[in-house]
Structure formats: C-alpha cells, structure tokens
Specification:
rod-shaped, MMPL_dom, single chain, 109 residues
Length: 109
C-alpha cells in the first residue's frame, strides 16, 4: 500500500479540523451525539479530500495515455504544405567577393 504524500496529509488534516470546527459552530450541537456526528462527518470529508488530492495527476496520466493511442494525423495535401523560404544570395562587396570573404580578408592583415 503506498504511503500518503505530504500534500495528502496536510490537506486532509486541515479539512478535518476546519470542517469539524465549522460544523460545530453552524449546527450549534450541544449533545454528545451531535458532536460525534459532526466529528465523523469531518473525518469522512478529510478522508475524501486526502484521496482526491492526487486525482488530477492520475487524470493527466490517463489523458496522456489516451492521446498516445490516437490515430496519426492525416497527411497535409501538397498544395497546402508550407514551402521552404527561398535562399537569397549574400550581398557582394567591392571586388566581387562576398561580404564574408571580404571580412575574412580584412581580418588577415
């Protein structure tokens, strides 16, 4: 059995304390039975919160697994496919050399 995470312990404990306190204040319970019912409801609510804290991670894993099983996308028609950008020639410096060659020539001196 896996151990509870820190988040589960924190959220569950906080829920038990706060919900029990709120129910006791709102219900104005004075008998032992009323207090016991409020405490039991707080414990159940805290347990539900502690268990559901990890559900979003499980849901993400399930949705990722479901998307892995999805069929491959249909091929894009050739007339709609993106075309590669045309390569422009580099500007020429004086003497017919490319800019890069001209820079290299000036650095060699």
């Amino acid at each position: 059995m896996p151990r509870p995470t820190t988040a589960q312990l924190a959220y569950g404990s906080l829920t038990v304390v706060l919900s029990t306190f709120a129910m006791l204040l709102l219900s104005d319970a004075r008998s032992g039975t009323g207090v016991a019912v409020c405490c039991a409801a707080g414990l159940i609510l805290g347990l539900l919160v502690a268990v559901t804290v990890t559900l979003p991670a499980v849901a993400r894993v399930k949705s990722a697994q479901a998307s892995d099983r999805s069929p491959a996308p249909a091929p894009v028609p050739e007339h709609l496919a993106p075309r590669p950008a045309a390569r422009r020639p580099l500007p020429r410096a004086a003497g017919g050399r490319g800019v890069r060659e001209a820079r290299e020539a000036t650095l060699r001196r």
